[in-house]
Amino acid sequence: MFRSISWQLQFSYGLLVLLALLALGFFGFLHQQSKVYQEVDRDLQTRSKQISSMLVRHDLKGIGAAAHLESGVKALPPLPGTSKDSQPNPNRFYQVWKFESDNFEILFQNGTIPTDTHPPKHPRDIPQAGITSTLGAHRQLLTRAVRNYVILVGEDISDQQQGLSHFLLKMILGEALFFIIFLSMGYWLTQKALSPIKQISSTAQTIAEGNLSERIPPDAGSTELQDLSQVLNHSFDRLEDHLLRQQHFTAVASHELRTPITAILAAAQSKPETIEELRSTLDSCAGTARSMKQLVDQLLELTRLDNEVRQPLPRELVDLDILVDQCVQTARSAAEEKSITLTTELAMIQCQVNPVAITQIIHNLLSNAIAYTEPNGHVQIRLTETCDHYEIDIEDNGIGIAPDHLPHIFDRFFRANRSRSDFDSNHFGLGLAISQEIAKAHGGEIYVQSQIGQGSTFSLRLPK
Ligand code: ADP
User: Number of C-alpha atoms within 13 angstroms, CB side, residue 35?
Assistant: First the structure.
C-alpha cells in the first residue's frame, strides 16, 4: 500500500499542508500574542512614566504623609487622571524602591506584588527602555527613575492569557477543519489524476487475459496520458496483428504439412504387388518427403528471421555485377528447359553487401520469373545505381499478377494461382515472404510492378 503512487502523493500532499498550517498557526499565534502584550506594555509604560513624574514633582515628604499600609510601606497618591475615591484596580500593582548604600529599600507600593519579584543588583543594570517580563499570570515593567529610584509596574494578565488560549483553541479547530478539507480535496484530485492510469492498467490486464481487441479510450486523462494511451494502443494493435498473423501462419503451415503427410500415409498403407510398384511407391514417398523437407526448411528460415532482432547483416565489398551474373548463369539451365531467353544489362558496381543474402533473393526472384513465364518468353535482369541506392530489376513478360493480388504478394503462403503451385513443384508461397524479410534485414526492400498477361518487374532496392 505504501508503495502505491496514490498513497505517496497523498502522504506528501498531506504533510505539506500540515506543515504549512502549523507554520501559519505558529506565526499567527505569535503575532496575536505580541499584539496583546504590546497593548499591556503600552499601558505599563504610561503608568511607569506617571509614577516617575510624580516622584519628581511631589514633595516626597508629602507623599510620605499618605496613608500607611499594613506592611509599613506607603502608597503613592492616586495617579493623575484618577480621583481620590476611585477604587484601585485590583489587577494592577506597583512598587517603588530607593537604592541607598548598596541596598534597595521599598518606599511605596500598591496592589498585590508577585512574591518572586526582585529588584536588580544595581539601578544601572536596568536599560533605558526598562525590563519587561512575564511572570506566570503577571506582566511587569521595571524602570529606572531619578535619584536611584526604581519603579516596578505590573498587571495581572490572566484575562488576556485566557483570551489567547481561546484564540489558540479556535485556531487549532479551524486549522483541523482546513486540514480535513485540503486532505479530501487532495484525495479527490489524486484519484482523478490517477484514474486514467488505473484504466490503462485494467485494459492491459484484460488484454493479457486474452481479449486482444480491447483498447484504452483515446480521451483518457491528461495530454501526457493520452500520448501514452496512443503509444500503448499502437503497441496493442501491432501485438494483436502479430499474434493473428502468427495464428494464421501456424494454421496454414499445419494445413500445408497435412497434404504430404496424408500422401505418405496413403502410400504406406497401399499394398504394392510387384517390385516395380513398391519402388514407385517408395520413390513417390521420397519425393514427397523431400518437398516436406524443403517446406520445413523455409518455415525454419522464416522463424529464424522473425526471431532475429532486425540488425544489419554483416557486409563485405562485393562486385555486384559479377554476383548477379553468377545467379543468372545458375538459372540458365532452368530457363533453357522452357526456351526462355535471359538477358542482362549490368552496370559495374562494387558495394558493401551480404553476398549470401543477395544471392538468395536473386535466386528466388529469377526462379519465379522463369516459373511464371510461358515457354519462349523473355526475362531481363538489370543492375543500376542511383544517388542513394542500388537496384536489381528482374523483368519478365510472363503471366503477370492481378491488381487485387498485388498487395498480398509478399504474404506468407500466398499463391495467386494455386493450381500451378502444388506441393510437388515446391511452390509453397513462402519464397517472396522470405526474400522480403532478408531484404529488410539487409536495410532494403523489394517492390513489384505487374500487369496481368503482360509481365512483372520485381525490384530489389538496397540503400547505399
Ligand atoms: P512460390 O514459391 O509459390 O512461387 P512466392 O512467394 O515466390 O511463392 O510467390 C508467391 C506468389 O506470387 C506465387 O505463387 C505467384 O502467384 C506470384 N508470383 C511471384 N512471382 C511472380 C512472377 N514473376 N510473375 C507472376 N506471378 C508471380
Answer: 9
The secondary element (H helix, E strand) that includes residue 263 is helix 223-269
| pLDDT tens track for 380-422 | 999 999 999 999 999 999 999 999 999 999 998 888 876 544 5
pLDDT value at 82 more than 50 = no
Least confident range from 61-75, 95-109, 413-427: namely 61-75
Question: Would you place residue 109 in the very low, low, confident or very high pLDDT band (cuts 50, 70, 90)?
Answer: confident
- Ligand 1, atom nearest to 458 Cα: 23
Q: How far is CA 104 from the centre of its chain?
A: 77
Q: CA-based angle 218:221:225, to the nearest 5?
A: 75
Question: Is the pLDDT at 196 greater than 50, yes or no?
Answer: yes
Dihedral angle computed from the Cα positions of residues 43, 48, 49 and 51, in that order, rounded to the nearest 10 degrees: 130
Q: What does pLDDT average to over the chain?
A: 86
**DSSP code of residue 221:** S
Report the residue among 361, 368, 413, 414 best suited for mutation to probe ligand 1: largest number of ligand atoms under 8 A from its CB: 368
Nearest-atom index, ligand 1, CA of 434? 6
Buried b (16+ CB within 10 A) or exposed e, 177-204: eebeebeeebeeebeeebebeebbeebe
Cα(356) to centroid(ligand 1), Å:
21
Choose which residue among 301, 372, 394, 420 to substitute to test ligand 1 binding: the one with the highest number of ligand atoms within 8 A of its C-beta: 372
Instruction: List all residues 6 or more positions away from 40 whose beta carbon is below 8 Å from its beta carbon.
Output: 139, 155, 157, 160
- The pLDDT of residue 421: 47
Cβ of residue 366 lying under 6 Å from some atom of ligand 1: no
Atom 11 in ligand 1: which residue has the minimum CA distance?
415
Query: Can you tell me the distance from the alpha carbon of 165 to that of 184, in angstroms, rounded to the nearest whole number?
Result: 29
**CB atoms inside a 10 Å sphere around CB 78:** 15
Given the C-alpha cell 495530454, which residue does it identify?
A: 223
Q: Which residues lie closer than 8 Å to 461 by C-beta, 6 or more apart? A: 389, 390, 391, 444, 445, 446, 447
Sequential DSSP letters for 84-102: SSSPPPTTEEEEEEEEETT
CB of 432 closer than 6 angstroms to any ligand 1 atom? yes
Our mutation pick for probing the ligand 1 site, out of 367, 409, 413, 446, counting the most ligand atoms within 8 A of Cβ, is 409
pLDDT, tens digit, 9 for 90 and up, residues 219-266: 766 777 888 888 888 988 988 888 888 888 888 888 888 888 998 899
Q: What is the pLDDT of residues 114-162, one digit of tens each?
A: 877 777 788 888 888 899 999 888 999 999 887 788 999 999 999 999 9
